[in-house]
Amino acid sequence: MKLDKGAQRSGLVRHRVATSATAVVLGVTAALGSGLMTGAHAETSAAPTGLVLGVGANESQRVVSWYTPDNTPQVVQVAPTSKIVNGEFPANAVTFPATVAANSVNGGYNAHATIDSLHQNTAYSYRVGTQGSWSTTYSFKTQDFKGDFDFLFFGDPQIGSSGNVDKDGAGWKDTLDVSLAANPNAELLVSGGDQVETANTETQWNAFLASDKLRQYPWAATIGNHDVGGKAYEQHFWTPNTDRSAPYYNGSAATRSGGDYWYTYKGVLFIDLNSNAYSNGSDAAHLEFVSDVIENHGADAKYTVLVYHHSIYSPADHANDGDNQQRRQDFPTAFSKLGVDLVLQGHDHSYSRSYVIKNGKKSHPGEQPGSAQVAQGPGGVIYVTANSASGSKYYDLTAPDTNEDPNYGPDPLNPKSHWANSVENQEHVRTYVKVEVRDNKLVVENLRSGTCAAPNAAVELNKVSWCGPDSGATPAQPVGSAVDKVVIHPYRGNGWDNRADVATTTAAESDWLQ
Fold first, then answer.
1. Are 100 and 71 in contact (CB under 8 A)?
2. Which domains does the chain have, with CATH numbers?
3. Where is the Calcineurin-like phosphoesterase domain (predicted)?
C-alpha cells in the first residue's frame, strides 16, 4: 500500500480500514514455524533500529516499538507470510500508523504502532519505517486464540551488570535460543524487569535487543529498578492499557518511566505493576489498579497472574530490604482477597517458589518443601522469583534473619529457608521459568538454560567462586534439566468478595480480611 502523503500529520499516516485488513488476511494459514525471519533487508542507512515485538491488549494484537533517526511519518507494514514473494510485500499489504515522539536518550525519535485484527493460526511478516527506508522484515505466528498455551518468564538479564556487555548479551541471547528451541510454540515472553544495568545506556539496550527472537515472539515488558532513571524503558517498550499517572511512577517527571498495565491472553488476565513506586501511597494505588482491573475483567479470566520486579518473598540479597518489608505488609492479604493465582517476580537473581500463601501466611501448615503438586484453596497464591536469565549477576541465598525482620524467619520444616518458600535455589547457572496454562491447572517449571561453561559472565569473570548444585559440590546439570517443577491446582469457588473494597486496604488496616 502506498502512503497517502497528503494525509501525513504529526507522524501518522492513514491505513486501510479494518474491512480491507480483514479481506487481506482472511483464511490465510501457514505451516511456517514460529518466529521465522524472512530475507528482506533495510533499503537505506537511515532505516529504523531497536525493533521489538510487544504484547498487545489481547491475542489479536501485537505492539511494535522502534527507534527512527528523523521525524518522518512511520508505519508498520504487515502481510501474511505466504503472500511475501522474493522478499517483496504484496501491493495490498496493510499498514498501521505509528506514533512518533522525540527520543530523550539519543536525540532521534522513538515510534510505536499496534498491529490489530490478527487472525489465529497465521504466520505474518512485518517491517517498519517508510517507503525507501524500511527495516529488515521479520515474522511471527499466531496460534489458537482459545485453549491451552505456554509462556516463558525471564528474570533480570541486566545487561552490563557484570561489567562486560558483550558477555552479558551472549548469555541472554543463548537463554533465548535455548528456551525457544525447547519451546518453539511458547506464545509470550514475560519479563521480570531489569533489562539493562543502566537505564539510558543504549549500548546495553542494543545488546539486550540483539536477538531476533525479540522481534518474533511478543515481549511483555516489566520495569525494574535498573530500568528507571531515564525514559529509555518506555521508549523501547510501548505497553497496552497502561496508566502512567503519578502514583505508578518513580522519580521526577523528566526521567520517570513505566506505569501499571494489563492485558488478557487466552483466558489469563495479566497485570503488570511498576513496583519501583511503593511509598507515599503508591502501594495503595497499585492495589486500586489491580482491584479495578479484576473487577472489570476478572470474571472473564480463568487465571489472574501478577507480574512485578521486586520479589516480596525474596530468598537472597534483597530478602530484608526495607522496601520489600513494606511490600510484604501491603500486598499479600489483598492479593489473596482478590483471587490472584500466580505472582511472578525478579530482582533477587535467584530462584524461589513459595508455598501456597493466604493473607501473608502459609495456607496449609502441612505442605511439604518441594511438593510437586499443590492445591490452592480459597485465597491461596503462589509466588515465584526468577533467577538471572543472562548470567550477568547472581545473588547467593541468605539465611532467614529473625532479628532484622521477625515476620520473615525460618521455615519450621526446613530452617535453612525462609518460611514462605517451598523451594529456594542458586547454582550460578542461567535459568528461565516455563508456565503451562491448562484449563484445570498451572504447571510452573524452572529450567536450566546454561551450565558453568560460557556464556556465563559472572562465572567467567570470577564474580562468583563456585558453580553447580549444592554450592558447587555437585557437577552442573545439563541444559534443559529442571531445577523445580510444580503442578498448581486452582481454587474454583467464589470466595473472593468485596473486591472493590481491597483497593485502599494495606496491612495496617486489613484485620477484617483475615
1. yes
2. 5-141 (2.60.40.380), 149-428+478-513 (3.60.21)
3. 151-351
Nearest to 421 by CA among 333, 353, 335, 343: 353
Q: Three-class SS of residue 245?
A: coil
Give Cβ neighbours of residue 9 (< 8 Å, ≥ 6 apart).
none
Distances (CA, A) of 316 to 193, 400, 442, 471, 473: 17, 9, 26, 14, 20
Q: At what angle do helices 322-330 and 282-297 cross, to 10 degrees?
A: 40
DSSP state of 229: S
Q: Determine if the peptide bond prior to 455 is cis (ω within 30°).
A: yes
Structural element, H or E, at residue 295? helix 282-297
CA-nearest of 371, 482, 344, 376 to 425 is 482
Decide: 449 and 175 in contact? Cβ < 8 Å.
Answer: yes
Q: Are 78 and 126 in contact (CB under 8 A)?
A: yes
d(CA 124, CA 142): 8
What is the residue type of 227?
Answer: D
Neighbouring C-beta atoms of residue 398, cutoff 10 Å? 17
Closest CA to 332 of 502, 153, 154: 502
Q: Which of 88, 502, 121 is nearest to 293 (CA)?
A: 502
Distance of alpha carbon 42 from alpha carbon 81, whole angstroms: 18
Query: Which residues lie across from 407 on neighbouring strands?
Result: none
Residue-wise pLDDT for 303-359, tens only, equals 999 999 999 999 999 999 999 999 999 999 999 999 999 999 999 999 999 999 999
Reported as a single tens digit per residue, the pLDDT across 195-237 is: 999 999 999 999 999 999 999 999 999 999 999 988 999 999 9
Taking alpha carbons only, the member of 249, 301, 298 closest to residue 276 is: 249
Cell numbers for 400, please give them.
Answer: 532467614
Q: How far apart (Å, rounded) are the C-alpha atoms in residues 173 and 450?
A: 11
What is the DSSP annotation of 406-454? GGG-EETTEEEEETTEEEEE--SS-EEEEEEEETTEEEEEEEE---SSS
Tens digits of residue pLDDT in 141-155: 999 999 999 999 999
Written as one string, the DSSP assignment of 249-269 is --S-TTT----BEEEEETTEE
Run of H or E including 102: strand 99-102
Q: For residue 480, count other CB atoms closer than 10 A to its CB.
A: 12
Q: Does pLDDT of 466 surpass 70?
A: yes
CA 402 to chain centre: 32
pTM for this predicted structure:
0.89
The mean pLDDT value for 155-166 works out to: 98
Of 171, 165, 275, nearest to 222 (Cα)?
275
- Position 157 scores a pLDDT of 98
Q: Find the helix or strand (DSSP H, E) in which 307 lies.
A: strand 303-310
Burial of 69 (0-12, 13-18, 19+ CB in 10 A): middle
